Amino acid sequence: MRNLTLWRSSHVSLAASDLSTSADPSSITAVAVDLDQDALLAATEQKDALNDGEVNIAIWRVLEGPENDAPSLVTSFPTPTQLAANPWSKGTAKRRAQSKDVEIVLLHVLPDAHSLAVITRAGDITTVALDEDTPSAEVVGSIEGGVMGAAWSPDDTLLVLVTGEDKLLLMTSTFDVLSEGPLHPKEFGQDTPINVGWGAKHTQFHGSLGKAAAKSSVPSTAVGASPDDDGHVRVSWRGDGAFFTVSVLEGATETDARPHRTVRVYSREAALQTTAEPVPGLEHTLSWRPSGNLIVATQRFGDVPGETAQSPDSGSGLGQGRDGRHDIVFFERNGLRHGELTLRESHNVEQAVSEQRRWGYRVRELGWSSDSNVLSVWIERQDGDLVQLWTMENYHWYLKQEVTAPPSEDVAAGRFTSVRWHPEDASRLILTTSSSIIQRTYAWDTFASPSQPPLDSGSVAVIDGTSVLLTPFRSQNVPPPMASHTLALQLPSSLQPTLPKRTPVPIHAAFSSARDLLAVLWEVGILQVYDLQTRLGPGRGKVVDPVLAWSGSLGPKSYRQVAFAANGAGADIRLAVLGSDPGGDAVDVVSVVDISGNELAQTTDVAFVAHNGRLIVSSNIAWEAPDGEILEVDTGTRSASEVAKFPEFCFWTSHTLVSTDDNASPASLYIGLSRGGKLHIANGDASRTLAANANSFTVTPGFLIFTTTAHVAQFAPLKSLGALLAAPEAPLPEFESRRVERGSRIVTAVPSTMSLVLQMPRGNLETINPRPLVMEIVRQDIDGGHYGKAFAACRKHRVDFNVFVEHDEEVFIKGIPSFVEQVSDVDYINLFLTSLGQGPLPSDVVARICDEVRAELERKDLKAYVNSILTAHVVKRPPDHEAGLALLLRLKESDPELVEDAVKYIIFLVDADKLFDTALGMYDFALVLMVAQHAQKDPREYLPFLRGLRALDQHYQRFRIDDHLRRYEKALTGLSLAGSERFEEAMAYVEKHQLYDHALSIWRNTDKYQAVLNIYGDWLFERRDFRDAAFVFRQANRLEKAMIAHEKALDWQELFELAVQPALSDEELKDTAYRVSEDLVAKKRTSEAANVLLDYAKDVRAAVIALVEGSHFSEARRIVVLHRHPELLEEIIHPGALECRARLTEDMGEMREQLRKQVSRLKELRVRKVEEPEAFYGVEDTDLHNVDVMTDISMAPTMFTRYTVAPSAMSKTSSKRSSRSKRKMERKVGSGRKGTVDEEEYLLKSIGKLVAKFNTTQADCASLLPHLLQFTDEHRTEAASLQQELSELAGELTEAVEEIWKKTPESEEGTEAAPAPAMDSWAARMEAHEKQKHVNPVDKVAKPDLARPEWKLRLPDARA
């Protein structure tokens, strides 16, 4: 769907340089490209007036760029002519060579030596060193017999020469001969087909030709050459330089009755590979496609004009077919034919027949662009030369452009002297005439209609010769090469008086954005405007029916682009046409054409200061300069002013109006795509680059859509683009995107149908409906109240119907009556409600929408929308099944048939068993039976159950129903109403389902309340909630059970409060006291146990023992004195104090041993960390985190294993861990296992816990020491020893803590915060975690504080 469009042209004339003053002027005959200096080297030939055997050759340099366009002479030298140096004229092939042929066979720049190689037909090989200040020509060699053809390899390392002695030479870049062989070998080549005995020709598939093609064979007498064959040899290389092909005119032999063309393929070493099959009428042209899949030549068919008919056996030597048929034929590397292309040139049999052009024209040369996309065909006609540009898509060849040779002053018919493609710039074509060099650069462009909704047709025009293929994608999606309509162009002879009487190929076409118009432009200034009359909606008749609205000629300029503009005052149509004066690099001129009716109202020309600019399609007329500057044209003053500027020239541009605020006036936004793939936006204030890898774009009313080389289509809201230009420093946002097929390019977008048309690299089309376009149209329809249209779009494109509510909830709720009116189909409403119920909307919102829709449906027609009303009930969260069934009950009597269908529908929506249970819970057996019958439940399952329920009384029946439905609280309520005789059953039901709270609420303020409390208390007691059970038992007046519960809960105050009330005997009270005290001592509540023993057991000795066991020595001494039992002091308290002292000594010994071991290990680890840091920390590559290379093979331990396993487990086989085991492994990190990197941190934490334990021991010693000093000498000695041990341990612990938590300068430097990871990824987080491992553990673990030593006493017998 793309067209070749002329981008820029350059015309350099050598006539102004006064090249010759003789009667025989010089002529440009060859051109070469100097890539190093970005220049062209042109060769001119002039016959020596004094010596007919010599030709003077001059080399001219033409630099690129407007400031260096004047040609300069490089050097000149004489060379002998072909006839003077080589009197070889025998043989058919040689006789065809004309004496007027140019002498230069090949002109080429050698990049390694930066020299120009000139090869002439006389056989001289001349080089010109281009780096010298005064370059001179040097003949480095001469070929005997002359040169008939030559070609350099693509890598400039090999040269193929065909000599006049019928030899094929292969030379190096230094002109050393590598190979020499015959030009007419007899053998087929190395790739001779092998006959394996099967697969004969008559068994093969021959397509439309049928099996008759298997029997037909071309006799050798029927294979001849075309009369238009120039007799020269052609050589062409494949793009990779691995093979080359030679086309030579073979003379008549014993086996070949007439001369004919033969194509042979050679390897890089000049070894013959294959010989092409004989083709009658094959001509001299030859070109190998750079991509390597096709070798192209031309073939003539039919009889030769002006000759008598030949016999059927021998024929004319041309191909069998229509007279005048002329094909471009394709060969594969193996020499077999591979399709053809028929040229569209026609000949007039009545016109005079030329000796060189028997059909009135001939094909001079063929050539491929360097990217293999465009085939150039140089045609010599009687009325002048032209070059046709052909491209192929979807196996169809399109004629895209024609270049006509400009007529010279002395000859009416213009002639080209050479045609070639630029070796690097694939779109640049270089043509020469006898006195000028023409360069034309093309670009691919899509002619798509910019019309806006609701009149957007999505029309696209494709130029194919004199036809324009039109396809409106809004109405039809016709795959190329077909089209909805083929517009045949025909120019009247009155518009082309100086042109050949044929319709040339147009150079450009454009659509109008305001009307359904198409403008077609020819380079000579002929302009036609068609009214397309495109049918947008469905219907019968033509989709496109074009009518010519206006046709005219603009004037003697060279035009290349046309665009529609806003209509001027008094004009129906206004167009802007971009052109320049023919010849030279004239400035660009924009001709503004106003058309009123069928007449040309006026033409206004506005000239610019530069050339090779581009028109921008917009409401006003804008022109883009080659430097990216955008100028707006004012036709009134015939001037232009700058309105914006791109950072570089953008060939593909667009203009739109955007506003960042709904209330703001729209501003201009220019969008441009450069050939380098950069997508720019600009306005009058700033410009920004959106992407650097874009390959196509289009603009819709809401989005800028562009595709990238990463095969992604991105959708940039136009409002956000305006905001981006307002804040140039703001980062680019993430636009919505979707993946597309590799190499996809945008053809057009049709906003009205929410479609985007893409073309694949192979030429086929794909129409997609991107979600942003769909959502934009859906939101517009919702805002406009077009709910039916929005609903249809959502349904078609699978958009969640929640968009109706999410877009504007309150507005949609108010518009529900309109929504129901437009979406009136019951199934559609059901679909809408179901989508809401299953979507992510909050439950309250869904319920509100469903209720509003249901109310509107009930108001409109309850019976017609009964299914939708039921849907509204059941899709709510939670669903209201009972309301739906209640509706069926209301309608059951009035319309039973409707209810029957409604029941079937609600069973379809809801699970039948759930609906059966809901009906059963409504206690309506008729409804239950109706649901069961329509749900096709087995009567043997539900009828016995229902009969059993019918036999019960009402309350007990409901109890059974609710119990069946597992509504236990409701069932208990029904059972409570069934009578007092059901109370025991009710209590059993309460215990079974633990309905104690509900039972208490039911039987509160009744005589059964105490019994319920008793059952509740028993249940709490069984659950070991003794305290709550005691409270319930006291409410139930079950004091015995309450006492037992208090005793189990160790609530001894409440227990003995109740124990005294029943007046228990002293023995029972004492037994209770001993039991309770024993339990309290077991719970370390020794002080409370002593109180129980003293108050209720009256046992002083047991109380003192309990206090001493809890180290309450002061309280124990007080009790002994109070109750006058001094013997207990020596009997219980003194031994108890010594036992407490021994226990403390044992604890301190364990702490001292632990401290010394851990301090020693810490010192060892820190020494190792300094001396062997790599072995201690290990080095881990974070790039390996995403690579699973673990195997089941036992591996030797490495530095990585220190982070995962202990040394004793290194030999275990590894396996893939689940996420649960990985989390478990992470919890083990820092557990302190020896040999792991977390051991030091673990040791520091352990010492911190040791300090806390020592602080507790200090408090115990502080309470014990005073008592030891007051007892016997033995006790005082133990007190001094205890104080000494405690002091030593405190000093050792203090010294260890200070030493361990002491920071060195190196460690302080290492505690600096590490920079945050650059990427928020798992690998980056792991890297940060590894860095965290290198942080000093002292910085992670807080330094512990030792409590103040309040235990120190001045002892008379000990030094402390």
From TrEMBL:
Q: What is its main location?
A: cytoplasm
Per the record, where are the segments of Basic and acidic residues compositional bias? 1336-1360
Recorded source organism is: Trametes pubescens (White-rot fungus)
All copies of domain ELP1 TPR, residue ranges:
956-1118
- Domain named ELP1 alpha-solenoid is located at 771-837, 846-948
Q: Where is the ELP1 first N-terminal beta-propeller domain?
A: 1-424
Q: Which intervals of the chain form a coiled coil?
A: 1272-1299
Coiled coil as a keyword of this entry, yes or no, is: yes
Listed A to Z, the keywords are: Coiled coil, Cytoplasm, Nucleus, tRNA processing
- Top-rank taxon: Eukaryota
Among PANTHER family, the record links this protein to: ELONGATOR COMPLEX PROTEIN 1
Q: Please give the family membership noted in the entry.
A: Belongs to the ELP1/IKA1 family.
Upper lineage is: Eukaryota, Fungi, Dikarya, Basidiomycota, Agaricomycotina
Question: GO CC: one term?
Answer: nucleus
- For this chain's UniProt record, which GO biological process terms are given? tRNA wobble base 5-methoxycarbonylmethyl-2-thiouridinylation
Which molecular function terms from Gene Ontology are attached? tRNA binding
> In this protein, which residues make up the domain named ELP1 N-terminal second beta-propeller?
462-747
Pathway participation: tRNA modification; 5-methoxycarbonylmethyl-2-thiouridine-tRNA biosynthesis
What's the name of the protein?
Elongator complex protein 1
Name the Pfam families on file.
A-sol_ELP1 (PF23925), Beta-prop_ELP1_1st (PF04762), Beta-prop_ELP1_2nd (PF23797), HB_ELP1 (PF23936), TPR_ELP1 (PF23878)
Bias kind Basic residues: ranges: 1214-1226
Annotated region Disordered: where? 304-323, 1206-1235, 1327-1360
InterPro entries from the entry? A-sol_ELP1 (IPR056167), Beta-prop_ELP1_1st (IPR056164), Beta-prop_ELP1_2nd (IPR056165), Elp1 (IPR006849), HB_ELP1 (IPR056169), TPR_ELP1 (IPR056166)
